[in-house]
Amino acid sequence: MSLLHALSEHLQSALASMRANLTAVLSTLTTITLTLLVLGAVLLAGQNLNRTLAGLERQVEVAAFLEPGADGPALLKHAEGMAGVAQAELLSPEQVLAEMTRDYPYTAEAAQLAGNPFPATLRLRVTSVDQTRVVAAAAGMLRGVESVEFGAGYVDQALGTLRTLRAAGGLLIGLLLGGTLFSILNAVQVSMYARRGEINVMRLLGARRSFVQGPHLIEGLLLGLGGAALAGIILLPVAGLLSARAAELVPALPLLQGTGPLLTLWLQLAALGAGVGLLGGWLASGRYLRELE
Amino acid sequence: MIHFDQVSLQYPSTRTLALSRVTTEVARGEFVYLIGHSGAGKSSFMSLLLKRALPTEGEVRVAGEPLNRYRGGRVSVLRRRMGIIFQENMLLPQLTAYQNVAFALRVTEAPRVSSLGTWNERVGTALRLVGLEHKRAALPRQLSQGEQQRVAIARAVVGAPALLLADEPTGNLDPENSRDVLRVLERVNESGTTVLVATHARELVESRRHRTLTLRRGELVRDDAEGGYEL
């Protein structure tokens, strides 16, 4: 029997079985759709959060104040090669004073009285927030660097928030996928129970386990894909509208925009639905056959 | 074809000794009755052959191969070499007689064309053997109990098994239908298939005599080549 023919037979069996247990199938499909809908929303929120945090991370800087007479260009060259440094810039005392005067106009008056108090400064942008302390420590060790400053409190808080959000998101995604898996397990078991007479005959006639399991794998796959499709149909337009509205209200927020990222999200949901569906179908049918034997 | 060597079977859940040191052989092409009262061990004997149960002691062999070689996925290979008939015919109610017989070929993934013929030819031959070719389009509910059992026999033999096991095949049938079913089983046997029939139907065993094995409380107490019902 060719693979295509076998697949076609399994698909027909799966569809017949789903028609025969329509209530259970609709109940499972609703649960999967809702779960994947929440999962999609969490993934979308996570991606937007990551973009916002990445934007904030890019603004984290380490300032290394140079001793008078230090070789600024040499230190700049060295700093550019340091691990964790995304970008380095050397500011002369005059440039620092100009920046300070722009932000705090009274600084100019103080400088006129006591002279420019600012040293030449190396400004280092880090590749990620968790590299800040490493870069600051390395910069502080350089000959010619008097002292180093970075927003330690902000960095620690940002790192803590980032870790907590990522862990909570991971946990939520795990729970939602677990919920989807259990829904599919339940649906496939109901379907197998309804076909128990036929399955019993199949096993006694000498059908291979994989032959018996085939239609139920397809059933799980169809449920997962169906749930993902429905979730996408609901989620995508809503997410598109919300992000467009948010962009109008807060233009600075780097939110995902356009159909590309949303379609990618839909594909991710479909892949998750298909994977969980296949896994659920395989686990449920395997367990049922073990009980039968 | 069948070889039991000092075979015992004790069900762990109830500690019941279903079979006790049974030793016997059934040669290829034989027709054998397995008789005994209810609970004598007939179904346990069949369960061992089907690998639905494992012997507590001793060895069971079919066609020279010890059954303990058939594990996991290989059990399906063993079952494809046997035809099985139960008291309940286990036909699928939504399928016609033809489809029920073809079901056996489909689920065992038999080639559409082989030296035994096409699926269509094989199903036709099996239905002809049981005298029901004219009812190939009938659903099980449109057939009598005896006809349903004959369709079940056709389904069991369509794969050309070397061994046919029948567990109380006439248990739900009246005497006339029982005789019909038995005649069909004899025809299957005449085509070279070894047939083992577990039954407690005295008149059947008396009317058409074949070698008879008698079980009593799990022990093989009689092996009579002349046949006859004596418990």
Protein topology:
The complex is a heterodimer of chains A (293) and B (231).
Chain A: H1 3-20, H2 22-59, E1 61-66, H3 72-80, E2 85-91, H4 93-103, H5 106-114, E3 121-126, H6 132-140, E4 145-149, H7 152-194, H8 196-205, H9 209-249, H10 259-292
Antiparallel strand pairs in A: 1-3, 1-4, 2-3
Chain B: E1 2-11, E2 16-26, E3 31-35, H1 42-50, E4 57-62, E5 65-66, H2 75-80, E6 82-85, H3 97-107, E7 113-114, E8 117-118, H4 119-129, H5 145-157, E9 163-167, H6 175-190, E10 194-199, H7 202-207, E11 211-216, E12 219-224
Parallel strand pairs in B: 3-10, 3-11, 6-9, 9-10
Antiparallel strand pairs in B: 1-2, 1-4, 4-5, 7-8, 11-12
Q: Descriptors for this entry?
A:
heterodimer; A: 293 residues; alpha+beta; four-stranded antiparallel beta sheet; 10 helices; B: 231 residues; alpha/beta; six-stranded mixed beta sheet; 7 helices; 12 strands; globular; transmembrane helix (chain A); FtsX_ECD (chain A); cell division (chain A); ABC3_permease_C (chain A); cell cycle (chain A)
Quick description:
Chain A has helices spanning 3-20, 22-59, 72-80, 93-103, 106-114, 132-140, 152-194, 196-205, 209-249, 259-292; strands at 61-66, 85-91, 121-126, 145-149. Chain A is an alpha+beta fold. Chain A has a four-stranded antiparallel β-sheet with strand order 2-3-1-4.
